[in-house]
Amino acid sequence: MTLSGLAPAKINLFLHVGPVAGDGYHPLASLVAFADMGDAVTVRRADALSLTVAGPFGGALADEGDNLILRGLRALGETAGIGAPPVAVTLDKQLPIAAGLGGGSADAGTAIRLAAQLLELDLDEAALEAVSGVVGADGPMCLRARPAWATGRGDDLRDEPRLPPLHAVLLNPGLPSPTGAVYRAYDDAPAGGADCPDAPADWSSAAVIAWLKGQRNDLEAPALRVTPGIGEALSAMRAAPGCRLTRMSGSGATVFGLFDDAAAAESAALALQRPDWWVRNCVLGGSA
């Protein structure tokens, strides 16, 4: 038996970050949404746990001995009391690496959920979320893969079913933006706070985009110091015809633009194509 699933790209529609706390974590507030595209994960029963990586960005993970999928599945087996789950996992890596899209956590979350289903493990949603936390603070939100407000370390989650589908273009300039380096640059001159704004009064897509313009990504400035090439991507997205909002996602280097409709997003994605850039139009939010 084989099961397959989408590990969707995660977008921080805004990301407010406070100074590092005594526990070493940065408090944050964010509204996260997930795209209708991402990596593909397949699991099947096998004699032992294994991982095969393919896809256009798979080469960057080929020599990674203990990536987040394997870490998450070992934690799943430990929680279930079965040891390393006897499953063979195939990851079709379509999302860029170190891109601010939560790709590794989404891959792990999808693999955890599929393996639990395949092996018929008696674990409820709370247990699966606890397992997913082993891959990082964004593990539970990526396991859920539905719109949510995230506060605390990013694992205090409140679903937001009112978020409408948002037509978007994702652009990665082919440059890595390592999360650790970006946070260190932020710590050199912390200029944000983990304030969580009141929800918009109107949840139409136009009103949500207008409301988002009043928010920010506090990691954008430090990411630009670490990876200046993100600035060119931001400028190109802002200049795209019909773009209503441009912002960096997570710790970068991917930026996103929001558009009125699918036709405008598709047209912008075509116009933004460059040889070294990864550009995709998609829909964010809505039903998971």
Give the topology, please:
Blueprint: E1 2-17, E2 28-45, E3 50-54, H1 68-80, E4 87-92, H2 103-118, H3 125-132, H4 139-144, E5 148-151, E6 156-159, E7 166-172, H5 179-188, H6 205-212, H7 220-226, H8 230-239, E8 245-248, E9 255-259, H9 262-271, E10 278-284
Parallel strand pairs: 3-4
Antiparallel strand pairs: 1-2, 2-4, 2-5, 5-6, 7-9, 7-10, 8-9
Explain what the structure shows.
This protein has 288 residues and is α+β, with helices and mostly antiparallel strands. It is 31% helix and 26% strand. The chain is built from nine helices and ten strands. It has helices at residues 68-80, 103-118, 125-132, 139-144, 179-188, 205-212, 220-226, 230-239, 262-271; strands at residues 2-17, 28-45, 50-54, 87-92, 148-151, 156-159, 166-172, 245-248, 255-259, 278-284. The strands form two sheets. Strands 1, 2, 3, 4, 5 and 6 form a six-stranded mixed beta sheet that branches. Strands 8-9-7-10 form a four-stranded antiparallel beta sheet, sandwiched between helices. Strand 3, helix 1 and strand 4 form a beta-alpha-beta unit. The model has no long low-confidence stretch (mean pLDDT 94).
